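Dear Dr. H.,

I hope your travels went smoothly. While you were away I took the liberty of generating a structure for the chain from your last submission, since the lab meeting agenda had it listed for discussion. I wanted you to have the full record in hand beforehand rather than looking at slides cold. The sequence, exactly as received, is reproduced here:
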Amino acid sequence: MNKVAIVNTLPIYNIVPPYHPHKIYPETRFKDTAQLNLPYKAVRNLFYQLKMDIENYNTPEWNPLSEYIKPGQTVVLKPNFVLSYNSSGNDIFSVITHPSILRALIDYSFIALNGEGKIIVADAPQMDCSFKDLMEIQRLDTIQEFYKKTFNFDIDVFDLRNFELINNREKAFYENRRQLDGDPNGSVIINLGKESEFYGLPSQNYYGADYNREETIKHHNGETHEYSVSKTILSADTIISVPKLKVHKKVGVTLNLKGLVGINTNKNYLVHFRVGFSANNGDQLPDNRKQFDKLLIKTQRYLYDRTLAKMSKSGDKIYNSALNIYKIFVKPFRGVSSDTVEFDAGNWYGNDTAWRMTVDLAKVLYFADKNGKMNNVKQRNIFCLIDGIIAGEKIGPLAPDEKRAGCLIGGANPIAVDMVAARLMGYDINKIKHLNLSNFEKMDFAIKSVSEIDIELDDITINGNGFFDSRFKDKLLNFVPHPGWVNHIEI
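The corresponding predicted structure, in token form, is as follows:
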């Protein structure tokens, strides 16, 4: 169960929807082909490296996902759809999963279903993602049309969010919000209680995904530690996680586990950092900030709490007035230093909060049933494939530089896959808190007895074509971390 495969390929995506393979393989259920599609070939090669249904490889009967998917089941592909643009102006596909990868996984899921069941692509992007723009980039509609026309089979695509910004390049003001229908199957509130990584911590300075900290604190205090999780996700028989290989400002890397923020229908249930400095149990910024920077950051957070968090026109006006005063009378003479801006909001190696949320969500993925009840056995099949053909480094996860890594990393165990991926990036996994297995030990869900999670690097079998050996000695792809993590995560 701890087998991980890495395949390398040229860092080139197929860009012609609906992303057909460039040749007919023996197992293919259709006769359509397109221009060179190296990602499709790489997905197929990854299955081969993992020895999936190896006895039938290169025959019409080859069904590599048959171990995870049976006819009549529901399969959910969970990509990284976090944003509809790269705010640095760089390649958008250093931010989000490429649709050519999704197309290959849809095809092999369909083979495993034998045409009977459901395939759903679902994620909850950030509030400032335009789902309309995202779909124009992805062109998943062409895959849906192809499957409907060829097989009379529906591929569903769900935006799991409860709201989005009307103008996604502006602040999340009260009048810049549009309510969404969210998950068509609804949400489930899951309370991890004492089994949460937040249990026993003071909650008064928690900050979530939105201005209203009171909502976040309401769901995380005492023995209440709640998450609002997509019922589509919880009802799936199999989850195929398809994240992007990239760095992350709050936890170091965003792969399968950190990508689980996208199973939440209300992200303000997710604690991202703690306001303040270590003296008041905060991890918003390092302690070694200039006093002027500390004052301005503290003032900004005070204004957020007193104005924007109120979700009213008057609150927005007061905040804008204060912002204009700052721009006219303060900023021209002395602004906040650039490194403080980069580190603010817990965007540094000292963030002791976001990893806890990540580990909590891993528990939910493994052990929450469709009604949100936690169990002591795994509740669904999981398969993971990280898209690292074009990856993201530096200002990740939202404004990265493209890293032409030219690889896919896959396996059945999201923790093992993330360990290998982080090490492939050139990072010390002992410095990535949500990959430190001791952080799973508190659970009463017998997680340490579950072989899929009770692992060490030496327990992982790595199959691939020459990337590296299992001893992880070299820096390998040598990703540049987010500025808040430089010199604190690398080997």
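Two observations you may find useful: Residues 442-455 have pLDDT under 50 and may be disordered. The two ends are 26 Å apart (CA to CA).

With kind regards,
E. W.
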